[in-house]
Amino acid sequence: MITIGTIRRRHNRLQKTLKNSVPEIVKLFSEILFTEKDFTEQEIFSDFEEVVDEVNRESLDIAVDVLVEFKNDHRESEKYPLIISALGIVEHLERKFDSRSNKEKIDAFQEAFVLDLNKFDSKVLRYAYSKNKVIRKEARNSYLALSSNDPYRFFDEFDRDLSKWDEIELMQYLKLQKERGNLEGLGKWINYSKNDSLVVFLIKMVGYFNQKGIDEILLEKLEDENALVRAEAILTLGELHISETEQDLIDRYYTEPEICQVAIVKTIRKFNSGKSLMFLNEIFKESNNTDTKKIIAEAILNYSYEGKIAFQNLKSTLKGFELTILKHVETPLIKYK
Fold it and tell me: Is residue 137 predicted with pLDDT exceeding 60?
C-alpha cells in the first residue's frame, strides 16, 4: 500500500534530484545554444533525460526556467527552437494554459512571451475575457505581444489609468512586435481611444519607435482638453523633430499650464534651430518656478554655440538665487550656497 508519506518522500527526492541537476541542464543547453556543435532533436531529448532521469512536468518546468534565464540575460542564439521542439515545450506550455491553477496560467503567459512563442493565439484569447482580473490582464497583454492577428484589439477596452508597471509591460510587448516587424502605426488608437492615460502612453511610444506619418494627429492633440495629452504631443513633436511647429509652440507658450510650458522648452531644445534663443532668455527671466528656470537654463546652455555665449552673458547679469541656478546647471555636481 502506497501511503501519503511515501508519495511525499518520493516527491521530495524528485525535487532534490531536479534542483541538483540545474547546473548540468545549464551546461547542456549552453553547449547546444552557444557552441558550434550540432545536435539532433533526439540527442537533445536523450541527453536531457539522462540529466533529469525523467522528462516530465517538473523537469520541463526547470528546462523552461533555464531558457527564460538565458533569454532575460540577452544570450542570443538561433537554436532555441531546436531545444523547444526536442523537449515538446510548446505542448508543455499548452498544458499549463489548461491548468486549473491560475499561477500556472500566468507562468505560461510570461514564459511564452520571453521565449517568443506566438503559437497560442486561441489559448490566450480564451482567457482575455476571464472574470479573474489578473488572468484577464495577463492574457490581453500576452495577446498584444504574441499575436500576429490584430494584436491591438484590446486597446479600446482599457477602462482605467495605466500604472507605471502597465506602461513597462506594454512597452516590452510593443518592442517584441517591433522586433518581429509587426509593429503597426499607433495613430489609429491615439485618435479613437477615449482613455487619456492610454493616449498619453501611445503618443510617447510613437516618439520612442520613431513612427512617421503621424504629424496631423499630433497637431490635433495640441488642442486636446487634457493638458497631459497636449504635453506628450509637444514632447513627441520634438522626438520626431517636426521643427516646422516651433513658432506655433512659442505662440502658445503663455496660454499653457506649466506642464506644457516645460514640454515646449524641452522640444525647442531638441529642435536646436537657433531661432528661439531670445525666447528662451525672455522666459527664463519671467519664470517664477525654480524647476522650470533650471530646465530653461539647461536649454539655453545646450542651444548650440550661441546658447553657451548667451548663458555666460546671462550669468554675468544675475546675482543671488538665480545666479545659483545657473551655476548649478553649469556644474551640477558642485553644491553652491
Answer: yes
How far, CA to CA in Å, does 61 sit from each of 23, 79, 93, 101, 286?
15, 19, 9, 15, 62
Please report, to the nearest 10 degrees, the dihedral formed by the alpha carbons of residues 132, 198, 145, 92 taken in order: -10
Computed over every residue of the chain, the mean pLDDT equals 86
Write the single-letter amino acid at 221: K
Burial class (CB in 10 A: 0-12, 13-18, 19+), 326: buried
Grid cell of 209 as nine digits: 519607435
Cα distances (angstroms) measured from residue 213 to each of 18, 179, 206: 53, 20, 10
For the chain, the C-alpha Rg in angstroms (whole number) is 27
Of 202-211, 230-239, 300-309, least confident by mean pLDDT is 300-309
pLDDT band at 165 (very low <50, low <70, confident <90, very high): confident
SS3 of the chain: helix, strand, coil, percent, to 5: 70, 0, 30
Q: Give the pLDDT band of residue 318 (cuts 50, 70, 90).
A: confident
**CA–CA gap between residue 280 and residue 107 (Å, rounded):** 52
Query: Is the distance from CB of 169 to CB of 141 less than 8 angstroms?
Result: yes
Identify the DSSP state of 226: -
CA 272 from centre of chain: 28
**∠ CA(324), CA(328), CA(333), 5° rounding?**
140
Question: Three cell numbers at 97?
Answer: 494554459
Write the pLDDT tens digit of every residue in 34-76. Answer: 999 999 999 999 999 999 989 999 999 999 999 999 998 989 9
DSSP per residue over 38-81, as a string?
---HHHHHHHHHHHHSS-SHHHHHHHHHHHHHHHHTT---TTHH
DSSP string, 140-166: HHHHHHH-SSSTTTTGGG--SPPPHHH
DSSP H/E element including 304? helix 304-317
Percent of the chain having pLDDT more than 70? 92
125-134 exposure pattern, b = at least 16 Cβ within 10 A, e = fewer: bebbebeeee
